[in-house]
Amino acid sequence: MNPLDALDYGVAVFSIVAIIYIVYLYVVKNSQDNAHKQSNDELMKEYRQLIERSNAVIQNNTKALECLTALIRDLQISVVRQEEKLNELLERARK
To answer: Cα dist. 22→8, 28, 68 in Å?
Structure first.
């Protein structure tokens, strides 16, 4: 085999290996990007679900606080009425 032919053969093999390596890197990069994108999509989906659940909890807590506020208001009104009745009874008892 002529040394120049061997050199041509070596360059051709090196070129083919380089092309295969570049294609391999491209495929690996795309698969990693897709995996990363899928991972980000899953995280965003979980994040949205967490936000929805948090909103539901906040709404439930708001309703509960409104009910408690109404109950406390009713109790305060009841206590004021009872105090007025006691004051009236004390006035009658003093006369």
So the answer is: 21, 10, 68
Residue closest to 69 by CA, chosen among 79, 61, 81: 61
Report residue 2: phi and psi, to 5°. Answer: -70, 140
Model pLDDT for residues 11-41, shown as the tens digit of each residue: 888 888 889 989 988 888 888 777 777 777 7
Calculate the alpha carbon distances from 34 to 11, 13, 28, 45, 75 in Å: 34, 31, 10, 16, 61
CB-side neighbour CA atoms (13 Å) of 83: 6
